[in-house]
Amino acid sequence: MVICSCTLHLDLYDVSSLKGRRSVLNKFKEKLKTFNVSVMDISGEYAREADIAFVFLSPSALESARYRDRIENALVSLFPEYTIEIDHEEL
User: Fold this and answer.
1) What is the CATH number assigned to the segment(s) 2-90?
2) Cα dist. 81→12, 44, 85 in Å?
3) Mind listing the pLDDT tens digit for each residue in 28-49?
4) Residue 25: its pLDDT value, please?
5) Separation of alpha carbons 58 and 42, rounded Å
6) Which H or E run contains 37?
7) Domain locations in the chain?
8) What letters, b where the CB count within 10 A reaches 16 and e where it falls short, cover 57-72?
9) What is the pLDDT of residue 45?
10) Cα–Cα distance between 84 and 91 in angstroms, integer?
11) Whole-angstrom Cα Rg for the chain
């Protein structure tokens, strides 16, 4: 069993307030929840940057990489206007 912990970093160039950032993050969090992952906003106070942490279990490291790629590809295709970086750690 593999626990995959991921951090999604977003650069939100078109957002100018914390309320605007929250609106964008809610869209990302709702989409991530469709992948059956645990999601949490770990952003700081700067409105134009955001971080979302998500965690999921996988039976193997290979399956974990495939699932992570599937999530990343879905987010990139659904939100092409944002620069998305995903860092991960497997335990």
Assistant:
1) 3.30.70.1120
2) 9, 21, 13
3) 999 999 999 999 999 888 888 8
4) 92
5) 23
6) none
7) 2-90
8) ebeeeeebeebbeebb
9) 83
10) 23
11) 13
